[in-house]
Amino acid sequence: MICLELCAGCARLSNTLRARGFSTIAVDHSKNRPGVLHPTISVDLASEESAQKKLALSYEPGVVFCVHAAPPFGTSARSNHRRSRKAIQRLGVLSVKALRSKRHPNGVPGLDDICKKRIWSANNIYKHISLILEKLGARCIFTLENPKRSHMWNTAFVKKLISDFSLIPVDLQQCMWGGECDKWTRFYCNHDAFCAL
Predict the structure, then answer these.
(1) 118 CB contacts (<8 Å, ≥6 apart)?
(2) Is 96:80 a contact under the CB 8 Å cutoff?
(3) pTM for the whole thing?
(4) Closest CA to 29 of 133, 140, 121, 106
(5) φ, ψ for residue 88 (rounded to 5)?
(6) Which of 13, 29, 81, 123 has the smallest C-beta neighbourhood within 10 Å, fewest atoms?
């Protein structure tokens, strides 16, 4: 079995699983590698070509996967209006408004070009991860992670995945599992073992 971590960040999960004897593959964008704990393959999941290469894994005969995906939630956070001044300067905008809403989970209308580009990139990541999980879903255990109140859960791609696989929602507080803050996280999974969380 291969454990595949998509949008791995520092790849803490892959590092932990490898220490317990699993074969692991951590995947993330080359720009997102703060304090990496495990070797990481650089793949831009917003790119159609890169996503197709990952999809090709689903055709490997005899390989069973355990997949965990934690897509970036910057554009899906409900607290976009509380971005720091530094983040606002880095993005090149004077103020940060909500990029998504309950009514417009795939992106609110009337965004400027910079925000549209961010939404486009995030939506492509959500779409490609959903496609990868859909292709591997019949022969893998998988979890999809984001904050409990993330707008990602209502995007067209993720809603379809949840519906098609009758995924199970699991809500947990990070602080109960060693996190430093009371952050509510939601996993959608295709196996009820995760309900223990």
Answers:
(1) 74, 75, 91, 99
(2) yes
(3) 0.86
(4) 121
(5) -65, -45
(6) 81
